[in-house]
Each structure stands twice: as C-alpha cells, then as structure tokens.
Amino acid sequence: MEKVLESIGKLDEKFMAEAQVRLDSLTKPIGSLGKLEEVVRRIVGITGKLYPKVDKKTVIIMCADNGVVEEGVSSCPKSVTSSVTRNFTKGITAVNVLSKCANADIAVVDIGVDDDINCDGIINRKIRKGTWNIAKGPAMERDEAIKAIEAGIDIVRCLCEKGVNLLGTGEMGVGNTTTSSAVSSVLTGIDVEVMVGRGAGLTSEGMTNKIEVIRKAIEINKPDPKDPIDVLAKLGGLDIAGLVGCFIGAARYRIPILIDGFISATAALCAVAIKPEVRNYMFPSHGSAEPGSRKVLEALGMEPFLNLDMRVGEGTGAAIAFQLIDCAFAAYTQMGTFGDAKIEQYVPLS
Q1: Which helix H or strand E contains 294, and what residues bound it?
Q2: Domain for residue 168, yes or no?
Q3: Residue among 145, 203, 166 nearest 55 (CA)
Q4: Which of 44, 117, 307, 321 has the fewest other C-beta atoms within 10 Å?
Q5: What is the pTM of this model?
Q6: DSSP alpha helices (H): ranges in 8-62?
Q7: pLDDT at 273
Q8: CA-CA distances (angstroms) from residue 120 to 23, 130, 190, 238?
Q9: Which of 161, 193, 314, 344 is flagged as catalytic?
Q10: For the chain, what is the domain count?
C-alpha cells in the first residue's frame, strides 16, 4: 500500500487551465455553469486529458457484516446484509434501478459478509465473516483493515484495466451507520450524539442505545485519532475499509470517484487522513439525511451536489450524480463558442 500512496500525484494544472479557456469561450456568461464548471476542470486535471471520457461508469458496492449488531443498534436483522447482497445481482434494488438510468454498471464485492455467498455477479474479496463487536473490543486486527484497503485498491485497478473511467461508491452492511458514526466522531472530534442518526429507522429508545454503544466502543478501544488505520481497525467495518481502498485506488489510477452517503463519506474521510492528496479525486454526490454525513463533508471541505434527504445507501446518490457529470461534459464538449455563434465574448465586470 505504501507504494500506491507514494504514487498519488497532484492534478494536472496545465490541462485545467486549458479547460478553463474552453469553458470561458462557450456561449454563456463566464462562470455561469457554476459547480458544473468545477467538475469539468477537476476531471480534466485528474485524467490529464483535455477531453476525457466519462462514459464507462461503475458503482462499487462493498458488502460486509458488523459484529456490533448484537448490541441492538439496528432495526434490521443481520441476515439482511446477505439477502441484499444477493439481490444486487437480481437487478431489483434501488441502486440497480438508478444505475441503469445513468447507463452505469455495479460491481458487488463481498468483503466481509457473514455468509457463504457463491453467486454469479459477486466479487469475492472476503477478509473474514464480519467484524467483532466494537462494544467489546476492536472490530478487526490492524492487518485485516490494511488487507481490506488493499482489496479496494485492487478492485479499482481491475476496473481501470477494463476501461472504467468514472466511479461511484456504495455499501451494504447492517449496523454500518453505527461504525461510521464511531469512526467519524473520532476523526473529526465531533461528539457522538451529533453524528448519530436513525439509520434504517430506529426508535428514540433505539437511538439512545446506539449512542451509548458507540461511546462505550470508543472508551474501550481508545483509538488514536492521529492514526486513521487504528481508528478504522478498532471501530470501523470491512465495508468502510474496502471503500477507503477505492478512494485511494481512484487517486492512484487517476479516475474521478463519487462519494455516496454517510458510510462512504466516512471512508473518504479516512482515506484523506491517510493521504491528503486523495481529496482532489473525490466528488460529493449528495447530502444524506444522516446527520453525520453533513458533518463529515464539512470536515472534508465539500458541499454536496444535491440535497434530496436520501438515506438508502448502496451507492444510490452516486448513481444519480453520474448524470450531473454527464450534463457537465455535454455542455463542455457540445456547446458552441462565441466564435461559432459570431457574437462578442463576455468580459467579466471589474
């Protein structure tokens, strides 16, 4: 992993400047496409191509179980993780439908489901069958967290070799808003109570229990906030760790990657804590209804493209945001210039 981290470079400022010239020449007031222009500039800088392709899209869905579920932190039984992981291959889940709308594929990865899944369409990168209960000890060994990160990096490598040029992140794992709340609370220094949401639909009593469980997990495990891998190993999940690898891998292979909701935002936060340059390769798709999501995006210095109050997970927000990137590049490549229109170019007011 160290060699991968060392290989992550800066964005190509030369091509970004050239892209800005092109954007300013289009038949519109200068800067009037707002964030869409920033999307274009950064993707040009990421790829090092003035007219990059963003037509082969894939949402990577990391699936894993979490031992903390035995503390009653979720309204769903643990078996839902395995069931939904299998359902991704049937085309019936939310991310299936929304990815299809965006002409995108999905890559379903079993990185830690507590079940023997031998199913076509599921990539087996299982590190182990779920994590331990963080309310009783660490979620996993440090080397297991590193292996999960490396698995995420390798998944991106494989997709890159297949020509994928735009990535989204998703997950499936009952209890993973609990692990995400714990990890993000430690990394940001924000109180647990501010980070915790209702997940799949907890009652008020369930929320109180969830907060107490996370506080206990942090107290017992004493994670080092200056060591993101220590925090991940002690409080996180294999799904989060795999997504950390996806963000690092996207930076290594210079592919733009979309953050989905709270869980993938937490993974993005970990990845940036490990290697700050990785942030330049990420785009925040939406502001999740989970309160911690907004706090994590603020810590990353990002504003979401969309605010839809979604909390599905799976990569659904990323799938929707793919279409915004399509729109940005359609404008960039297909609009006429002032020269084409034979009108005088706008000049910024001083």
Answers
A1: helix 291-300
A2: yes
A3: 166
A4: 307
A5: 0.95
A6: 13-25, 35-47
A7: 98
A8: 44, 21, 42, 21
A9: 314
A10: 2
